[in-house]
Amino acid sequence: MTLGLAPVDRVEILTLQDNYIDIVARDDSDVVQRARSRPGFSLERSLCAEHGFSLLVTLERGGQRRSLLFDFGYSAEGARRNAEALGVDLSRVEAAALSHGHFDHTGGLADMMGRLAPTAELVLHPAVYRGPRFTKRADGQRAPLPQFLEQQLAEAGVSPVETREPYPLLDGQAAFLGEIPRVTDFEQPSGTMCYEAADGTEHVDAFEDDTGLVIRLAGRGLVVISGCAHSGIVNTIRHAQAVAGEEPVHAVIGGFHLTGMDEATQIRPTVEALREIGPRIVVPAHCTGRNAQQAIERALPEAFVLNMVGTALHLGG
């Protein structure tokens, strides 16, 4: 399904939650702007990193700026607290999207949705409620993961848009990717991540709910955003190209879910595919893992950006 995305003039992506923070980084550029220690950044107003992910995406077209929220972080207050410290007015955010149903992306959902514009819609895949989910240890024991429940949304007064198909956001200036086909041979479901079905049977979790966003940046190409990329970051990019129409990829940001993955069979083929796709900017965040981040930086040194809480990416213009 191809959507006719409206090209935008600028894309700004502000990280409200990620696994890393360094407020004395000095690598600002035309594209990257780091958060700064400044008056008001007291202990109560400091930026906090957690094993979670949340982005504020602002699009500019014809001089008009519009924003959407992608994911909600790990804890109930972490991403929202960082937004306040960064001076973000959440009441101006017009839409929100959830990448998948894992706790490190849903933690702040109820609190943050209540602070967005009254008309803001939340878009998600219906499989976000799957569960209980768990990881399976080598000894066969289960390590349970917190389940995201439909009841949580009802209690928060949120009636989401549930879709498996691509869905336009902000009047077609961005798109929710919907369910991502697995087309590569090296990005297949891990046998260690499972769920229990309603009948009590155990299944490997294929993460049908895992998804992302795509934006068309005028004159540059596509901006692809992932949450964890359980479906594979290469699969995510290829699907984004299919949804938006085949175009060069200008930037990719998000979790690539390569932490702990095998170098030869998963990290290396992913890096080679990224090199072939050739994005101008690559920001492997959250669950990408140190080994994979270093491999991407070695392969694409001019494109690589180390992400952290409070980082703002300025694309276009």
From TrEMBL:
Among InterPro entries, the record links this protein to: DHPS-like_MBL-fold, Metallo-B-lactamas, Metallo-beta-lactamase_dom, RibonucZ/Hydroxyglut_hydro
Ranges for domain Metallo-beta-lactamase:
57-158
**Name of the protein in question:** Metallo-beta-lactamase domain-containing protein
**Species this chain originates from:** Halorhodospira neutriphila
Which Gene3D superfamilies does the UniProt entry name for this protein?
A: Ribonuclease Z/Hydroxyacylglutathione hydrolase-like
Q: Which residues form a coiled coil?
A: none
Q: Which Pfam families match?
A: Lactamase_B (PF00753)
Record's superkingdom?
Answer: Bacteria
